[in-house]
Amino acid sequence: MTRLIVAAGGGGDAVAAAMLDAALYGDDDQAVILTYAWDRLLIDPLPGPRGADSFTGLTPITSAVWSVPAEARPVPPAGSTLPRLAAELPHTFALLDPHHGAEGVTRQLEELVGHLEPESIDLLDVGGDILARGDEPTLKSPLADALTLAACCQVNAPVRLLVAGPGLDGELSLDDLRGILGPIVHTFTAKDTEPVSLVLEWHPSEATAMLAATARGVRGTCEVRDAGLPVPLTDEGPAVHEVDMDEALSRNELARAIMTTATLDEVEAYSREVCGYSEIDYERNKAAWLKDQPPTELVPTTVLAELDQFESEARSRGVTHTTFRHITEALNLNGNQRKDLRELLLNSRPEQYAAPLWRITTQPE
Predict the structure, then answer these.
(1) DSSP 8-state symbol, 147
(2) DSSP code of 11?
(3) Distance CA 86, CA 171 (A)
C-alpha cells in the first residue's frame, strides 16, 4: 500500500514531506508526494507555478497526473528543483498543476487516490499559512495553500491536515495559530533530518531549512525573505500538529471562495478580492524589476566586506541566524550566484555554519 502526502505550498513543503514520511512511517516507506513546481524567482525566472507543459520527460500516472522523474527537465527559461529532488530522494514526486483551478486540482487528487488507493493521505504545510484568514498584514503567499486546502476538502477520501513548524514561514506567528492547532503528532529530531540533509545543502526553501535547524537544536531569531522578516527559532519549531480540516476551511476565506474555480486566473482574481493582492502579481513585478538590474559580480573581498556590514546591521536587529537565500538577496546577487556565494562563505567562515542556516556572530570574528 502506498501513502500519499500533499505538499500544500510546493517548494520546501515537498522536502518536509519526505522528512515526515520517514519519521512517521519508517525509512522504508516511499510515499508519493504531490507538489507544485513553484520555486520562486531565485530558481525559476518565470513568475507563478509551472504546469506539465513546462517540462520534458514527465511520466504519466493518470490522465491528469504526471510524475517528475530525475531525467525530467524544465523547458528553458523555466527552472525547477523537482528533477533534482527526484534524483536524490526515493519518493515519487507527482506534479500538482493549478492552472485549472480548484476543480482541476480536485480532479488530479481524485484520479491519484483512485489509482494509488493509498493507505493514508496527509496534507502538509510548513509554517501554517494554510490556516490564514486572508486579512493578516504579514501574509505573503496564501494562494497555493488555499488551493490545495480547497481541493482536499472536496476529495471523497479522508485527508489529515498537518502543520509542521508553526510560525516558521514568517507569515503567521505561533500566537496567531495557537487557537486552531490540534494535538502534536510528532516532534522532529536531528535524526529525522538525516534523510534530507544533503537536499537542504542546496534547496532554497527557508521555512523547511528552519524546520530542520530547530530539529537540530538551533535557537534564536532567523531573518528571511527579501523583506528580512524575523522568525523565532524556538522549542516549538520542530513540532507537527494535526488540524481539523473543517476548522481550517471555515477559517480560510480564500479557500472557501475558490472551491469552484476552473482556472488559475479565477483563483488569482479571488486572491486579489479576499487578500488584496495576488502573490503571482508580486512575482511578475519583481521579475520585471530584476530583468532591468545590471548583474553584480561576485568578488570575494567585496562580498565578505558587504557581509560584515549586513551582519553588523542584523546584530543590531537582534538577529542570530539567516539563510543563504536571504544573504543572496541582501547582497544584491542573483539566484545563479547563490551556490558560489554559499561555497565562498563556507570556505572562508565555516564556524558560522549552523546547518542549514548561517549564524550571525555576536561580534565580528
Answers:
(1) H
(2) T
(3) 28
